[in-house]
Amino acid sequence: MIVxxxxxxxxxxIYKLLDTLYGPKISYRWSNDLIEIISNEGQEIFYxxxxxxxxxxxxxDMYVIGSTDExxxxxxxxxxxxxxxxxxxxxxxxxxxxxxDIDCIEFFYPKTTxxxxxxxxxxxxxxxxxxxxx
Length: 134
Fold this sequence. Notes:
Order of helices and strands: HEEEEHHEEE
Oligomer: single chain
Strand content: 25-35%
Mean pLDDT: 83
Number of strands: 7
Number of domains: 1
Radius of gyration: 15 Å
Shape: globular
Largest sheet: 7 strands, mixed
């Protein structure tokens, strides 16, 4: 059985999941060239690089921390975390909650090749609407 959902339904689903996991009011702490996105419980969930550590062509590059990535993957099936749509939705969520204008995202996603599981890096630039070249 194939279930189709619209982009708006997908956005609502991801927003509610993130609100459930990290609270409706996330905050941030700025230090030098790093912005730490913090959940309601005071846990760091994302890093945003503004100078060093960011991808080429990005002004603010968000990195999804490993523990955050694991929590998200535990709650959302792999089929629902399409890389491009998930990236856009996650960035729009963080931008709405914090007021920061983050334009890029970097995260690792699980991939199975010939029965061996490993993580693969994914970079995405929203303004250019394409995957960053490494």
